[in-house]
Hints:
By secondary structure, this protein is of the alpha/beta class. The chain has helices at 64-74, 92-100, 117-126, 145-156, 171-178, 202-213, 224-227, 239-248, 271-281, 285-300, and strands at 36-40, 78-82, 105-109, 128-134, 161-165, 185-187, 217-220, 253-254. It has 10 helices and 8 strands.
Amino acid sequence: MSTMNTMGTTFEPDEDWLAYHPNPSKPAFTPPPGAVDAHCHVFGPGDVFPYAPERRYTPCDAPKEKLWQLRDRLGFERNVIVQASCHGSDNRALVDALGASGGRARGIATVGADVTDAELRELHAAGVRGARFNFVKRLVDTSPRAALESIAARVARLGWHLVVYLEAGDLPGLEDFLVKLPGVVVFDHMGRPDVTRRVNGPEFDRFVRLVAGNRNFYSKVSCPERLSITGPPDYDDVVPFARRLVETIPDRVLWGTDWPHPNMKSHMPDDGMLVDWIPRIATTPELRRKLLVDTPMRLYWPEEACDGA
Ligand code: 0GY
């Protein structure tokens, strides 16, 4: 499949690219009213919103209309759309989706140090509430720390928070930098632990201590499909890691589908089954309400949040 934009550029997905599940199952678990899918993406479509020249992968298009269909099928009410590296710091596809969401989506943008205050204000008006710092080396050349510090200070003035994507092995080298960041810092996918290691071993202990010890740190307990070695549909090996976080910092965890699951090479998850995984990591109605409603509402729709945690 190829798409051509008005400049005559085509975007062929990578040869080994797995498309999102065409027909996810209806989950048996019904999310509580007001549930938020707090980590998902939109890609393109490339003929309208071209992928970034510096991208490390070319995905298949994953447009907003498909995301809304998924939201409704899974029983969610809102989305937090996270800018992915294939769009670089061109947030137009994200802004377009936010504008079409009827207020039911908020966004996490990627911005460079050269972003102007006027551009930041425009992003805010569109529904962006955070900036993503991506430290995953296979995806991006990370900006210098000084540039990130400057972005962090500027977006903090808008009340935004930061979303940090890293792999567990890189955490020790980043900790000093991360603890000085202003405001809320949300870690993607539990800091990407190696789940073949012990859940109480030194690597994951370090992550849990860091997020538990800093009241402004949050973690997404997402992406079993990305972290698991034992695989679908149960992703048993990831459960103890997510559960430990849900039980240690119940007011500071978030969950998301990660649709359309960029760079999955082993398999493409059935999103309905991912939703059915939630009760295994958040084992009471109260924990599930905090995870799926209270905490994302506090971060992304504070004007409507009512839990006051
Ligand atoms: C994810 C994961 C990935 C990609 C990106 O920004 C990105 O390109 O987020 C990944 O390949 O691990 O869903 O956050």
